[in-house]
TrEMBL record, chains A, B:
This is bis(5'-nucleosyl)-tetraphosphatase (symmetrical). It comes from Pilibacter termitis. It catalyses: P(1),P(4)-bis(5'-adenosyl) tetraphosphate + H2O = 2 ADP + 2 H(+). It comes from the Bacteria. The keyword Iron applies. Residues 28-155 form the HD/PDEase domain. The keyword Hydrolase applies. InterPro entries: Diverse_Catalytic_Enzymes, HD/PDEase_dom, HD_domain, YqeK. Gene3D superfamilies: Hypothetical protein af1432. The lineage of its organism: Bacteria, Bacillati, Bacillota, Bacilli, Lactobacillales. GO terms for molecular function: bis(5'-nucleosyl)-tetraphosphatase (symmetrical) activity; metal ion binding; nucleotide binding.
Amino acid sequence: MEKKNLMYSGKYFQGTREELLKRVNSVMSEKRFRHVLGVEKAAFHLAEKYGEELEKTSIAALVHDYAKEKSDDEMIALIRESAIDNKILPFGNNIWHGIAGVEVITRELAIDNEEILQAVRVHTTASSQMSLLDKIIFVADYIEENRTFPLVEEARKIAEENLDFAVKFELIHTLEHLIAQNAKIYPQTIEAYNTWVAGMK
Amino acid sequence: MEKKNLMYSGKYFQGTREELLKRVNSVMSEKRFRHVLGVEKAAFHLAEKYGEELEKTSIAALVHDYAKEKSDDEMIALIRESAIDNKILPFGNNIWHGIAGVEVITRELAIDNEEILQAVRVHTTASSQMSLLDKIIFVADYIEENRTFPLVEEARKIAEENLDFAVKFELIHTLEHLIAQNAKIYPQTIEAYNTWVAGMK
């Protein structure tokens, strides 16, 4: 199937894929938009391999970074006025754009499917509970064709073989990378690590 | 001053240092007892350097691993019957022996000084809030003379120069070590890392 012509049913987004692409393109740089298209392509591949619906996969991939280029002021105001736990405030937009990005997507794109929103919510942090769609977006974001970091080929190979192993690999190497940079680590990422890597029940 | 003859005042423990040593020796292997003496020695050095009271330092060092060789069953029963958050249960005795060890120390040794108990509580996990005594025991446990891991000489050198940098160094390399082993990470250790390494307020 030619995924570029994927027909949306209208169940999740009131418009065509082309219309959603235009909306997404309008809120980000060309470079980020290329990344988003790369995530959709990688996510389609994983969805076909592991059995996820393509329409939900497409929409989650296309909107996952929708709030990434909002200003800090706008995101902070949004977090303060919404029901989102203010504890995320010190973590910056690397964390905000998923968890609080869901608010932006709901308001500006009228997307309210909880599976899609949850995949956006956890696409950077991961979570101790992850659906198939959550895992697909989390991994696709890491391995899409524009990524060039040293371990990406190994990550791609693992994703071909076992999606849970790919989640585990990504968590380990994301944490190593954050620690090497002395960067903040979001507590939920450690819960995810304890579950998916350390096997905690 | 000859620290082996350090006189206890009776304020924190109802007995002499020799009596406490005997009690500690009776609940652990010879190897662990040597480690405990090494921690006391390193902690005395740090206490003199950074200005902590030697008596509290001695007692905290001597009792820090007091519960390390209790059986899992005994520790689990203790956690279940006490006010300790049951969320620590999946983390095993590496975590229990500090947090729940305090219960054992209070009951069996009648030590109730909160500064000493807190240093025991956080000696493995660290914490986003650490007193001078907490830092001394945390670092002394890592650098004492019986430790032989590759980075220990660097850790010792840093501890001579700046105690906070030594806490930071230990947190970074402890997390790296846990991740390399795919071992569980206690959430409070990430809070400590976010504070002492990533500079989160």
